[in-house]
Amino acid sequence: MGLDILIYNNDGICMNKSEISEDLHYWLFNLANLDKGRFRTIFRVQDYYKTNIQLSGIEISSFIEELKEIRKKSPYSKEIERIVNCINQQNISKIRITGD
Hints:
By secondary structure, the chain is of the alpha+beta class. Helices cover about 35% and strands about 25% of the residues. It has a four-stranded antiparallel beta sheet with strand order 2-1-4-3. The chain is globular and about 40 Å long.
């Protein structure tokens, strides 16, 4: 089971859900050789079992931009694109990413 991404609108209602699969998570933090300083928002979800973060405003924008950059060299580009499309919408106020 992957990391759940819960997507909330401006009224605080969970309007959609996505997921970072276990395979993508493993690739990101074990095979992709990402620079921790460059991908700070992504590295907030590194601890698979303890992840419980909330992003809003500029943090969501940073998360999206980091995912777009990673997508260019990832074998999981379709999954990343699906995640980006899900969270890159006008009326999103926050996202919450949680592990098991």
